[in-house]
Amino acid sequence: MAGRPYSSFFLLFSLLLLITFSHIAEVSGAKLRASDCKPKCTYRCSATSHKKPCMFFCLKCCSKCLCVPPGTYGNKQVCPCYNNWKTKEGAPKCP
């Protein structure tokens, strides 16, 4: 009986740790599956008036990098591949 409170505490601690790490992975732009690209890019491009080109390049970048930065603008440092992919002219390729 004496070991039971410790096992309950350990189980609770493990659960809280798991929840914390899953939230950190989600916020930090963790690797996506290819099927996650369309909804992430739809949100990423929702604030622009140039939706077609934004979606085209966002989907292309997401399929290569398996990451889309959070929000509708900026935050590219969260996804280094997405951030560092450039056009021939040196401009950012990913929206």
From TrEMBL:
Signal sequence region: 1-29
Chain segments annotated as transmembrane: none
Keywords: Signal
Highest taxon, organism lineage: Eukaryota
InterPro entries, sorted: GASA
Family: Belongs to the GASA family.
Protein name as catalogued: Protein RSI-1
Source organism (scientific name): Fagus sylvatica
